[in-house]
Design a protein that fits this description.
By secondary structure, the chain is of the alpha/beta class. Helices cover about 45% and strands about 15% of the residues. Strands 3-2-4-5 form a four-stranded parallel beta sheet, sandwiched between helices. Strands 8-7-9-10 form a four-stranded parallel beta sheet. The radius of gyration is 18 Å and the shape is globular.
């Protein structure tokens, strides 16, 4: 991994990894890939005991529960130089919405502001904060990339993953039509408005297929699971992976949506 020397940051920053609920429960390999990328870039990585960022409650209008969860996250990640999440939606919740939750509480607002200021999505942190220019990884064949809504619109994550993917040996990026259009997941949106969500992901799946790339990447596991489910139901043989797995060269796990073969006894 190549890292540019940047002024104004610790040489070996202490990073608290916000794993995210979906990664913890459904795809731990994404968390391990994130740790590898951060350590390769010179970070000292810790994974403190943590809970949900509160995004599902926030999206459902339950501000009380969201504040309770936010307080736990603020306490858990106190003292780290940076907080990094392999998810634009969780990082966006902390960075953009936590300060809004405590507008009428000066004490907690100051703590929320401090946490927000040092919280980043993974690829944005690697490129924008650490100055990473390339990764030591290889991948055989073309991929296409979906820009998840929260990362793109709340955090400006778009060029960073593409810049890093451009350094992966053997990989070529094929841009799909409307890569920046929602996949239809939207957290609780997919449950509340399933018909609309289904129509949106149907259009996304067609665009993925028309890119003629055998692998689909993105930076948010919720989006990836949603798209993988649709592609699988439609019988489209496209592998789906989190971008961190490819950037870290950790693609031994089956693609998202494909069950691991049972161990032979």
């Amino acid at each position: 991994m190549s890292v540019l020397p940047l002024q104004g940051r610790p040489a070996n920053p202490r990073v608290g990894l916000f794993v995210t609920c979906l990664v913890d429960l459904m795809r731990p390999s994404v968390g391990f890939a994130a740790v590898k990328l951060l350590e390769d870039a010179g970070c000292i990585v810790d994974v403190p005991v943590q809970t949900c960022c509160g995004q599902p409650a926030y999206n459902s209008g339950d501000r009380g529960t969201t504040r309770d969860l936010a307080m736990q996250v603020i306490d858990a990640f106190h003292g780290y130089d940076y907080v990094v999440a392999p998810s634009g939606s969780c990082a966006g919740t902390i960075r953009v919405h936590y300060p809004e939750l405590f507008e009428e509480d000066p004490n907690w607002r100051a703590k929320a502001d401090a946490l927000a200021a040092r919280t980043y999505e993974l690829t944005s942190f690697l490129v924008d904060v650490l100055g990473v220019t390339r990764v030591d990884a290889s991948f055989d064949g073309p991929v296409t990339y979906h820009d998840s809504c929260s990362g793109l619109r709340e955090l400006g994550v778009q060029t960073q993953p593409r810049r890093l993917l451009g350094s992966v040996e053997g990989l070529s990026l094929v841009e799909m039509k409307d890569s920046d259009v929602c996949c239809g997941f939207g957290g609780t949106f997919a449950v509340k408005y399933s018909d609309i969500s289904g129509a949106i992901v149907d259009a996304k799946a067609r665009n993925v297929e028309e890119a003629h790339a055998p692998t689909l990447l993105a930076g948010d596991l919720g989006c990836l699971m949603n798209m993988a489910g649709k592609l699988t139901r439609d019988g489209r043989p496209i592998q789906v992976r989190h971008v961190a797995e490819v950037l870290a060269g950790m693609t031994d796990e089956p693609p998202i949506g494909v069950a691991k073969a049972p161990a032979v006894k």
